[in-house]
Amino acid sequence: MPAPAEHPASTETMAFQLLLQKLVSMEHTMQAIPPLLTKIIDQLEAQAKPSAVPVATYAQLYALGQEPAAAPAPALEPQAPPAPVPHARGRALWRWFMQETS
């Protein structure tokens, strides 16, 4: 039986070796992912059928934005206030609304 002082060190060493093995295994797995994805993408592209509907490019979509801008629209002229309401009660309300505060 090992001495009590050596037991924690050997446990730490075993744990470190186990972690190192797991990290190496994970590294190999991560390195295998890009070739696998490339293979999958190549197979999917080979199966893909060209679409019946043409797909527009960015230049086609935004060709209008590349042309020089048109002259700005003329400023709108201020409009006259609406005509007063024809009946008496409406006219009184309109006068009250339009009177200036002193």
* Average pLDDT: 79
Number of strands: 0
Elements, N to C (H/E): HHHH
Structural class: mainly alpha
Distance between the termini: 107 Å
**Helical content band:** 55-70%
The value of Rg in angstroms is: 41 Å
Tell me, briefly, the overall form: elongated
Q: Treating each run of at least 4 consecutive H or I residues as one helix, how many helices?
A: 4
Beta-strand fraction estimate: under 5%
Low-confidence stretches: none
Written description of the protein model:
The protein is elongated and about 105 Å long. The mean pLDDT is 79. It is mainly α. The protein has helices at 6-47, 58-61, 63-66, 88-98.
What's the structural blueprint in terms of helices and strands?
Blueprint: H1 6-47, H2 58-61, H3 63-66, H4 88-98
